[in-house]
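Input record, target 12 of the design panel.
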């Protein structure tokens, strides 16, 4: 459904280009949930936003993103607008604040539907009621302003808006980060339901929390400093990570289903590098406890380490992707 090849998305600043996404390649298959994980600032949100809405200072420097055969990087504004919400949609990172506070939910939905060719308001109202029921919201929510809803209700209302027109690919960008554990579980269950009901065909789920991806994703891609460091089936990434960064990231986060007294969390040493002038070798070498002599000078290729499992580390053998 989506094939991204050597994509480079930078930010133009007065002092140079910030290399937020620098040569990233991956694919999203029909019917799967594809997870993207990494620390804040690793480029994961920039990556997914570049697929749906590029705005300055974001600049496309190279590579392509083929979605159903069309390169998203080459679409005009009008072409991008036509597929937004109908074929490709996003639940944004700050979803609880994404809705227009001056409009009622039904008016927000009507504006969106009308922009994409709907002319029967009663039909749109019926669809809205169905979707509100699906996310366990009362029909009365349609007549409310976003400010009248709790955080969890606003989150679910945003999910209704983002999926109203049955997009083929849904991007969920850090949508659980501001939610309590109970609400996180509800949101994940709703996303599963959207997939099961065919409301969306495939999904990209972005988060810093690998424990959440363990519950929802079929495959996971781990990013660090604008690069892919590991990608593979969820079970392999969670239970058999091979890249030093992936291992450290897993050890730094609480695990679901394990009592906190039995968990020993370890922070990742050092600080993320500046993406204005990243090192020419492995971008993780300044923080890596297993760095070797060539790590600062040579960028490691992404090599195959198992079935559908790839990683970029000089310590690994394997075949190129």
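The sequence produced for target 12 reads:
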């Amino acid at each position: 459904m989506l094939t991204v090849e050597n994509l480079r998305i930078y930010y133009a600043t007065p002092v140079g280009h910030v290399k937020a996404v620098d040569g990233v390649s991956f694919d999203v298959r029909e019917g799967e949930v594809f997870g993207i994980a990494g620390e804040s600032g690793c480029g994961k949100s920039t990556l997914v936003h570049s697929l749906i809405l590029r705005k300055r200072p974001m600049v496309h420097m190279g590579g392509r993103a083929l979605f159903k055969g069309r390169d998203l990087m080459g679409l005009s504004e009008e072409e991008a607008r036509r597929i937004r919400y109908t074929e490709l949609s996003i639940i944004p990172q700050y979803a609880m604040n994404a809705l227009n506070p001056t409009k009622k939910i039904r008016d927000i939905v009507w504006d969106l539907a009308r922009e994409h060719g709907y002319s029967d308001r009663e039909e749109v109202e019926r669809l809205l009621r169905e979707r509100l029921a699906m996310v366990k919201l009362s029909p009365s929510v349609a007549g409310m302003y976003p400010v009248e809803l709790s955080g969890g209700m606003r989150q679910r209302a945003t999910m209704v808006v983002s999926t109203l027109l049955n997009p083929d690919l849904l991007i969920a960008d850090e949508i659980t980060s501001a939610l309590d554990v109970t609400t996180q579980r509800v949101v994940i269950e709703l996303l599963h339901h959207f997939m099961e009901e065919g409301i969306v065909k495939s999904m990209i789920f972005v988060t810093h929390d690998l424990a959440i991806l363990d519950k929802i994703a079929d495959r996971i891609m781990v990013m660090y400093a604008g690069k892919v460091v590991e990608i593979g089936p969820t079970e392999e990434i969670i239970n058999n990570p091979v890249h030093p960064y992936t291992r450290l990231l897993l050890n730094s986060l609480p695990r679901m289903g394990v009592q906190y007294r039995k968990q020993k969390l370890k922070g990742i040493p050092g600080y993320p590098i500046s993406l204005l002038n990243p090192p020419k070798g492995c971008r993780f070498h300044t923080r890596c406890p297993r760095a070797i002599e060539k790590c600062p000078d040579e960028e490691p290729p992404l090599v195959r380490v198992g079935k559908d499992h790839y990683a970029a580390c000089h310590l690994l053998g394997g075949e190129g992707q």
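The first strand starts at residue 2 and ends at 13.
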